[in-house]
Hints:
- The chain has helices at about 45-50, 100-105, 155, 160-170, 190-200, 215-220, 235-240, 255-260, 285, 300-315, 330-335, 350, and strands at about 5-15, 20-25, 35-45, 70-75, 90, 95, 115, 135-140, 145, 180-185, 205-210, 225-230, 245-250, 265-270, 290-295, 320-325, 345.
- The longest helix is centred in the last third of the chain and has 14 residues, at about 300-315.
- The strands form 4 sheets. Strands 3, 4, 5, 8, 9, 16 and 17 form a 7-stranded mixed sheet that branches. It has a 6-stranded parallel sheet with strand order 12-11-10-13-14-15.
- Helix 4 packs across helix 5 and helix 4 (about 160-170) packs across helix 10.
- Helix content is about 25%, strand content about 25%.
- It is built from 12 helices and 17 strands.
- The relative contact order is 0.16.
- By secondary structure, the protein is of the alpha/beta class.
Amino acid sequence: MAEKGFDVQGLAARDESGVLSPFNFTRRKTEPNDVTFKIAFCGICHSDLHKLRNEWHNTLYPVVPGHEIVGTVIEVGTQVKKFGVGDRVGVGCLVRSCHNCDSCEKGVEQYCDKYVLTYNGIDVDGSITYGGYSSLMVCDQKFVIKVPESLPFDAAAPLLCAGITVYSPMKYFGMTEKGSRLGVVGLGGLGHMAVKFGKAFGLHVTVISTSPNKEKEAKEVLGADDFLISKDAKQMKDAAKSLDYIIDTVSADHPLPPLLNLLKVNGKLVVVGVPDKPLQFPAPSVIFGRRLVAGSLIGGIKETQEMMDFCAEHNISCSIEKISIDYVNTAMERLEKGDVKYRFVIDNTESFKV
């Protein structure tokens, strides 16, 4: 056991340029309730790009991103019974919460006012948390997820953010009734997972996109049933009142009224993307049709484990492009342009020789 903590290799950005470079730091030693694991793979979330460049105006430099982390356990604390050395595990967006509030007691730790983010957060000891663009992770066992052996390890990593971000609202808002019609706005990291979950739940899935060239991919590769070009007014009009649910994954500014018009009476639109400007819609677009507009943030730890097990049962994983650590800055440039299908995943094992 490391008495004074673990020496860790990583990548960090030091300023708003967002450029990542080697950064060595120390993680705490394995405490009684901790699980320590060597990181095998880490997904690159679009929010990483925002954080690197301080686009949300809350970045704490130096910042080591990464909250889609999987790896193999090398040590557990004396109070840990659920995990053992050699287990495949993962950590998502959170590493701590208060455990005492209403949200924590209901298993929705993501809504705890005192949660601690996996990176760019302030831990209980006042230190800045560092994420998965690194060689090793130490985390409280309550925030560690078991990764089923049947899942490809690299493609399982993005499930810890991209997967749970769409799975949680689908379960909470009842978007699981076989034969119902689901619309998925945007076909990126989140959107393609919503398509996969929708098909696994037995839904009729329609992808809604501004890019006509994504139709073949949506239908032939991901199994979507229909495809709508959101800029095509006739297509959108013809599809009015055809959907029971919509998951909106788009982070760019876009109008909501055309999407709301696609919903049947009692239809639900759930926003999981975070555009820079406020979303707006006229009251009649929800009043005439008793439609619901809602939002959702990742998922609780219990639900994240449920999602991971569901993925194993239905052979669902993220579609990825695996990269080495020295390609990450290039990957960020490509991510900004939307040039990835559908998630970059860093091969940490090959990148950090420890």
